[in-house]
């Protein structure tokens, strides 16, 4: 098997040896220098050197910066949680033990007596709400110190990953390319060159090429329809074994041929319009590649804006006209005929979702709001389900202690886990609907939305039901115990024993056993997809970790055992994720460090959660306001810490050496593994033809 062998994705019956070889090629492993066999489908080496599960994570940098940073983050978060637990959590456990075990002679069977003293228990674990004023004051002060500790820890994690995780990154087309958004459709190449000359002093000779991404959604739809028709045609041919069947299917085959011809004409017409640079197919995006990387850095420095300003303009975008009239001479690059222009470094070619360029930014904002509303609706439905279980638990409090305390609490935790899984599937669908222009942004959207929604469902819903309803406090503690226990045990097990992966293995075995007994109607492409390993869904893994971390921060003072269980959960989840990556999952897409930087921003709310949890413990559970001033100071300081942390921004792009500042596009082009023309579906064939022509 080599890359010169022709690959027919619609071949019937499929070649199972080729499918199994493709599955090997898609596995994660080191490149074998003596490798001579390549998969004709994906052009990846078949026989790779297996990576040990205990291998240093830095050795995984060939998968992109995002993968090593993900595993490094789990380690650093575990250390941070351990320090916070030592500072704040241990004291709460010690005071609980002193009051419930020593002073009141804690007895597991004597529940009413202990509740009178303010002690609650479950599975041998106890906590109390009957603390002295001194103990409550010390706890509030420790929560304040925990706020400083978590803020300092997050800053150190940022610094450590920025300074000590420098990966040897080769230059890419993104280093020389700028992306303009909301640029006028009617401007031609000469006008774009004049724009750069006027505002950035960049000569036209320094511009290598200008690419106008087109509206290719109809083109891709036609391609998809054509592939479906070809696949249907191949299936009919494969199933026809007698002349009578050929005559019966002749009309259907003729109809399919006519439909394929019509689609071919539409596809050819679109490609001709692209060649003629049709104005009506343009989007408001422009990719401009410059000769020197220093020119790109120079333009980005000029266009650098306040972080919060960019967020407001990106997500609200309602002040363009006002800014146009208030504009000064130094900011004239922002507007063309009153139209706001946005400039940033272009994403990597393989990171771009080309068909989403046709969706305007205002439409994307509306889609995001609709998607967010739908996700929040699911959270509300889950809250009503948990309310129903908690109501039953509260009503049956006096009938059966074991049933009320453990069975219903476990059922409540199970309901929350199921709602989280539903949210996970729904958010993946809605992220596609939001029409992000890059896979990184789409992954970031999945991760952020999933983390927030699952945190609300897992942490805030149970506590909110306790606040707004007259439910028993002990039931809250037992429910929290089962929720954290689920994070500790169920999540690592689901990572290893993925139900979808098991179903896939069963289908593979059934087809291999029956390939000689019956006609297989799967095409070669479908067989390849069946034999591939599961996708490495890093957004789901990030959200799982962050949801649990934020929850343990919020319940640090209310339920300190949760932090201890979360540290152990991170340890197990780390090895489970590493095992599935190196032994099971297919080769993940290249993930840059931007995703990890965004996740660090999300954890910035941790100081507020610690101070809010401490305040809720005293004001809601114990119902005492003796340390009100300390908690107010704690909340103010935590908000300042969060604002400082979010405002402080590390550059996403890795720092180059001084010698690298003079990189030239034409010198580095030979090292590029891909380019924008090669990744754009509409120009891919032409780019490949030009490359082959140059080689010849």
UniProtKB/TrEMBL annotation:
Keyword terms of this UniProt record: Coiled coil, Membrane, Transmembrane, Transmembrane helix
Domain CSC1/OSCA1-like cytosolic, residue spans: 175-356
Pfam family, one: PHM7_cyt
Superkingdom of the organism of origin: Eukaryota
InterPro entries: Anoctamin_TM, Csc1-like, CSC1/OSCA1-like_cyt
One function term, GO molecular function aspect: calcium-activated cation channel activity
Transmembrane domains' residue ranges: 76-94, 136-157, 370-391, 403-427, 448-468, 480-503, 553-576, 602-621, 628-648
Residue ranges the record marks as coiled coil: 216-273
Domain Anoctamin transmembrane span(s) in chain numbering: 363-569
GO cellular component: plasma membrane
PANTHER family associated with the record: PROBABLE MEMBRANE PROTEIN DUF221-RELATED, RRM DOMAIN-CONTAINING PROTEIN
UniProt name for this protein: CSC1/OSCA1-like cytosolic domain-containing protein
Organism name: Paramecium pentaurelia
